[in-house]
Write a structure and sequence with these properties.
Tetracycline Repressor, domain 2, transcription regulation, mainly alpha, Homeodomain-like_sf, Arc Repressor Mutant, subunit A, DNA-bd_HTH_TetR-type_CS, single chain, DNA-binding, 9 helices
Length: 194
Amino acid sequence: MPVNAALRCANFDERRDKAMALFAEKGFGQVSMRELAAHVGLTAGSLYHHFPSKQDLLYDLIEELYEELQATLDQGRRALARGKPVLASLVAAHWQLHAERPLQFRLAERDLCCLSEGQQARLLVARKRYEAGLLHLIAPKTSLAGERLAATAHVLATLLNQLPGWLHGRGLPEDQSLALMESVLLGGIERTLR
């Protein structure tokens, strides 16, 4: 990649990260385009050159998170192929992803409703695909079906995505936090999937 192109990519990523931090701090709906432009170091007019709209930027940030969540399932599949505990692998992968992208988790949880109906629908498809893959890895032989299966997948995914945020900063060593997450999920799985 030429030096100028690499610099443009780095500047774009830095501006995108600054925009994400502002959205996470104030709330997507509370940030004006003018404030966003000033925060990322652009004029209001040139902001549209970098980001087509505030909504498109938010959509991209949340979509990227769902792509990363889908990648956590690959780690679970690799663990399964090596005969390692799948749940422990998934817990560790989600813990790491949350440590790397806490602001994206916050935006996905809080500001999804600020997107257009079409954007929300596309993200719902991505989330359902992730949830179905997650449940298939954790409980491949479940007898659940229909809405109960979908609800169970949603609850398990929500726990995996929220527990790291609840546990970070609680003073527990990481290994104890991971063990607690695994225990909570295992308890829920055993009771739900009987």
